[in-house]
Amino acid sequence: MRNKAAALLLAIMTFACLASAQKYRIKYSVDEKDPISLENAIRLALENNYELLLTEQDVVISEQRLKEAKFLYLPEISFNAAATGYNLDSPIVLPDSLGLRYIAPAKDHDTDTLFYGLGVSATQYLYTGGRISSTVSMAKAGLKEAMSRYEAVKYSVIYQVKEAFFQQLFLQRQEALLQDMINRVEKYLQGKTYKQWERVLIQAERAKMKSRVNALKEELSSANLKLINVLNKELNSKVVISGDFDFNPINVDLAKATLWAMEFRPELKSALYKLEMDNISVKLSLARRYPNILLGIGYDRQGEDNINDENIQATLALKLPFGYDYGTQLKQKRAEQRQSNLKRAAIEDAIRSEVLEAYNNLMFWQEETAVRIATWDTINKELGNLNYNTLTKEEAIRVFYYYYEAGVDYLEGIKEHMLAIAKLELAVGQDIRE
């Protein structure tokens, strides 16, 4: 009953893992010219990420190992058919690979006459001291550990996509803001008369603005290349993205987030499954002290000119393995068990620290971004009421720079807040807004 419940639980976990993967693992196909949304960027990255594809194959390998382990419950069946030519002075027994048949010399034997044999045998382990059940349990734990590693890589890839995606959205909006500032400056300067030193000032400021535009284009190019690498697309691809770039504050309870992390973080699950595997290894080492009880059944027909001779046998055997390394193996496995316990405790501490750090970062940007947005709104309102005729040209240009710098701070606050949410979700191991 316990084995059935464990099998049902493993099946549910496997289905849940695959269902979670399929949330994004939809075959991505869209026109290269169409903008890519964040969700489609995640799907594309998960389809193409090299490390994720490797860990996915680890899951497949572990599934097959579990199937192989379950085969140990089945009897070992072998078929054998042979034709043997012989000229003997004394009886022989054919090797195991040739059927283990006994052949006796005969004075009237014609060397051209062959000895024929046809047989089938089955060997079933009736008792192994828990070795087979432990091997199956080890394979199940290995599968769960591989699935956890897959989940950890998947969450890491999703965060990398979000980081590159949000950075490019930020730079796109910064570029639009810079162009808006330049347009405002040119509109202000249009149709005015200048003193000689003012013309020098204007040329210098225009050169600065041009340098800012070029530097921003270079940043955009680097951000686009980073996104291409995350999506694992060809380096000569041009990725166009579109998505929301808004400030959406959220309420997060630190204690609840920490509990979620202890429950959902795949790294901790992987460490727990590794500890389970080490516990099973200790159990397997202890099981080597117990005997094997086997039941063997064989049916064989043989003869020279026909195979009318019939042999049937059934054997119940007890096999007690003996090894000099019982003690050393057990000490090794117990040491590995203690190592896994220490690693699990270290991972728990690291996860708590990551959650706390991500939470503090989110709280900071949630408050800071609200202040920056209020400042940006105030500056826009003041600019709308500003009488530029009361300012010198140098003061007016400085005002436009203040407008641009406040806008960059406002956009950076939104980007960092979005990244802070993504970091906390990575630290918790699930979407904290669900």
Keywords:
434 residues, disordered N terminus, 9 helices, single chain, alpha+beta, 4-stranded antiparallel β-sheet, two-stranded antiparallel sheet
In words, what does this structure look like?
The structure is a single chain. This protein has 434 residues and is an alpha+beta fold. Helices cover 64% and strands 11% of the residues. It is built from nine helices and six strands, in the order αααββββααααββαα. The strands form two sheets. Strands 1-4-5-6 form a four-stranded antiparallel sheet, with no helix packed on it. α1 packs parallel to α4 (131-189), α2 crosses α4 and α4 (131-189) runs antiparallel to α9. The longest helix is centred in the C-terminal third of the chain and has 60 residues, at 326-385. The radius of gyration is 37 Å and the shape is elongated. The two termini are 35 Å apart.
List the strand order in the largest sheet: 1-4-5-6
Given helix and strand content, the structural type is: alpha+beta
Using only C-alpha atoms, the radius of gyration works out to: 37 Å
Strand content: 5-15%
How helical, in percent, are the residues?
55-70%
- Give the CA-based shape: elongated
Order of helices and strands: HHHEEEEHHHHEEHH
* Low-pLDDT ranges: 1-6, 8-16, 18-31
- E-strand count: 6
Largest sheet: 4 strands, antiparallel
Mean pLDDT: 86
The end-to-end distance, rounded to whole angstroms, is: 35 Å
Q: Give the number of helices.
A: 9
